[in-house]
Design brief:
Two copies of one chain form a homodimer.
Chain A (H helix, E strand, L loop, with lengths): L1 H13 L3 H12 L5 H8 L7 E6 L6 H14 L4 E7 L11 H9 L5 E7 L11 H11 L3 E5 L6 H4 L6 E6 L5 H7 L2 H4 L2 E4 L7 H13 L11 E3 L8 H18 L1 H26 L2 H7 L9 H17 L4
Parallel strand pairs in A: 1-4, 1-5, 2-3, 2-4, 5-6, 6-7
Helix pairs in contact in A: 1-2, 2-6, 4-5, 4-11
Amino acid sequence: MTADRNRELLAAFRGGDRRALARLLSMVANRSPDINGMLDDLFALTGEAWRVGITGPPGAGKSTLVNRLVAAYRSRELTVGVIAFDPTSPFTGGALLGDRVRMEMVSQDPAVFIRSLATRGHMGGLAVGVDESCDLMDAFGKQRVLIETVGVGQSELEIAESADTTVVVLMPQSGDAIQAMKAGLMEIADIFVLNKCDREDADRAYQELAGILSLKDPQGGWRPPIIRTIAAQGDGVDELLDAVNLHHSHLVDTGRLVERRSKRHAAKTRRLVEDDLRRRLWQAERKRESGEGLEGGQSPYELAKRLIDDFYEEIRDEEA
Amino acid sequence: MTADRNRELLAAFRGGDRRALARLLSMVANRSPDINGMLDDLFALTGEAWRVGITGPPGAGKSTLVNRLVAAYRSRELTVGVIAFDPTSPFTGGALLGDRVRMEMVSQDPAVFIRSLATRGHMGGLAVGVDESCDLMDAFGKQRVLIETVGVGQSELEIAESADTTVVVLMPQSGDAIQAMKAGLMEIADIFVLNKCDREDADRAYQELAGILSLKDPQGGWRPPIIRTIAAQGDGVDELLDAVNLHHSHLVDTGRLVERRSKRHAAKTRRLVEDDLRRRLWQAERKRESGEGLEGGQSPYELAKRLIDDFYEEIRDEEA
């Protein structure tokens, strides 16, 4: 019986079995039909972990920084979960996995749990189930959950909706701050990291970023600090950790944490509703029809109207 | 009467009145409730324009290239529509509009129509109504429509769903090709442009990109060429135009154009259906409830289930 197996799995999870955590994370990734009910059961165990999103443009050194952060948290005796995205591009092959492999070294530590999620096809959106994966790490008892984006695409910005603290990593490179501004990263950053600060143009880049930030009104009394790091050498990582803690305290003290988490809860609820509705809406028959508009000479506007009417009719014809 | 005004507007549009085009584009941007019916009316006029998406990382020189492409198309006596995205970040102000202003110079030409669309909030997704805006330019008689993304976020990849030919612009910069690969740009590119080829590392960058591309199987018999340009000086722009034409012929000759446009038609139909459904789903009352889960102590999984049941009940209670 699946129900029995699921109950056993939940019991093993509650008992701290890492394989049970791994199994549930896979169920999330595979969109198992049972997983939402199981997450509902575990919901009461969530809310303790601090969720730190690490984002920024490609090449800024996010993976290296995450490695260092894990080590720093461990030296403060905190347990850590890491959620990282791998591109699933069919022809990227193993070459890009170098960072991930390095990370696996850190993961020999049983207090650390690392999970790579596949991004959703070529659209670059946030991986399926990143919120749910955080919930699982949280319910499992991880005290910190780090979420690292692949660095391009929607995921860069969506991460702010899953994280308590969002860290935007930049590097000293001409126009990087301007581009980050264009990309909307300024709005989501709680903390900036200027990484690779051993480069000669680091001071200029720092001034540029500080200049742009000074134009921005602090949101809710918080002005994002800029932390200078050389992640490859571990420089500045403790300062970054302190800044995350400071941001944590700030959110708790001002009551903005409740507000932020309430928003996240609402966004997640709405996403779950829409996912469910979409599954039902795009059942085989309607999905097929939606693909035959052009050959049938129907405009998308006309066809869309017909499909909606059809959907409503189906619901009405059904017993409640 | 709104209906009368809309009819007049459509008549003016069909008569080639640029102000009518501008007005309809605004109705798209403002999600006017009347616009879908009007687009349905104009649908028969679409399908002639060739839609070229220009995307790539920030700073690669996309705006400059678009300017040059417009001029090159004009010298071949083709009419052009341009759809470009402006970041709507509340504090970016006017500083970033320099490129756009330069573009307005090109737009003195009455055969060119340029429209900037706002991107959707901080999420970086493709601007509201880019497809519909293309349809309008197309129905208005523009022979080429250029769509330029802001260069970061989802828009970079979504553009491939609106374009007939997708041009990915890179520049000679260490690791740019690798990062493009990570970001999924390799999958969507019909043509690569290596811009700023007057830089000293251009040859190395070209080899790197060519090396990566050689590992990839050509899709449907098309292997994306790499065009070297110096957009600021106009070098390579004619070659790019020729490559776009070649890609056009390829899609027509192999029948892949029908396939591609049929997919686009289907995706658009589904989006229209989902937008409509979402509007109805998230009416004030349910929207409010979805935001009260955390304080009510309900898990998002539990609350989502209740909201869906509620939505279905509402539809059942209603007369068809």
